[in-house]
Specification:
about 30% strand; two-stranded antiparallel ribbon; 5-stranded mixed beta sheet; alpha+beta; 3 helices; about 190 residues; about 20% helix
C-alpha cells in the first residue's frame, strides 16, 4: 500500500506498534520541515518545532495521542511590520480510527438532524492502511495556536481613535452647520 502525499509536516506511526501500554513519541523537525511549515502557516520563518506524545489504544481499533507541541516562529508585527518571535506551547489530544469505523460517523437523531456540540470532543480523525500521520495532527494544533495579530513589545498605533477623547476629535460637519444656522438666526 502506498502512503498518501505527506502534509507540510508528517510523522507516521504504525498502528500495530501501539498497544495498551503507552508508546512515547518525540519529534524534532528538520530544516526542510521547518521551511515547509513556514510556507504552510504563511509566516516568515519557523525556527523550531518539537512535539512529545503518548500514544495508546482507544476502544478496539483506534489510537489516542495526547501530548504537547512547541514551536518558535517569526511573524511580522501588525503595527511596525518588523519581525516578532512568537512562542507556541500547546497541549493536544487527538483520536484516530480506521476509515469506515462507526466511531467516526455522526448518527442523526430520530428527526434526521445531526447535533454537534461545539464544546464537546472533536470527532476522531480517520486513517487508512496500517499507519497514522501523527505529525500532521500535531502541526494542525500548533497552527491553530498562532497569534493572527502579533505585536512587537511596546508597539502602538499612533493617532488611532480608541485613544482619543471626545474633545480631541474634530467637530462634526453637521455641528458646524448647526452653529452657522444659529448664528444667522440670532442676527
Amino acid at each position: 500500500m502506498t502512503r498518501p502525499a505527506p502534509d507540510a509536516f508528517s510523522f507516521f506511526v504504525k498502528v500495530a506498534h501501539v498497544s495498551a501500554n503507552p508508546v512515547a513519541v518525540t519529534i524534532n523537525a528538520e530544516p526542510g520541515d521547518l521551511e515547509r511549515l513556514a510556507e504552510t502557516w504563511k509566516v516568515p520563518a519557523v525556527l523550531s518545532f518539537t512535539a512529545e506524545a503518548k500514544l495508546t489504544r482507544w476502544k478496539r481499533d483506534g489510537v489516542r495521542a495526547k501530548g504537547q507541541v512547541s514551536a518558535r516562529i517569526l511573524q511580522d508585527c501588525v503595527v511596525t511590520l518588523e519581525p516578532v518571535e512568537s512562542l507556541i506551547d500547546e497541549a493536544f489530544e487527538a483520536i484516530f480510527v480506521p476509515e469506515g469505523s462507526r466511531l467516526a460517523r455522526i448518527e442523526p437523531d430520530n428527526t434526521g438532524e445531526i447535533f454537534l456540540d461545539p464544546d464537546g470532543p472533536d470527532l476522531p480523525d480517520t486513517f487508512s492502511g496500517d499507519e497514522i500521520d501523527i505529525g500532521a495532527s500535531m502541526a494542525e494544533f500548533a497552527a491553530l495556536a498562532i497569534d493572527p495579530y502579533p505585536r512587537k513589545a511596546g508597539a502602538d498605533f499612533a493617532g488611532h481613535l480608541e485613544g482619543e477623547t471626545a474633545t480631541e476629535r474634530k467637530p462634526s460637519p453637521f455641528a458646524v452647520l448647526k452653529g452657522l444656522k444659529e448664528d444667522k438666526s440670532g442676527e
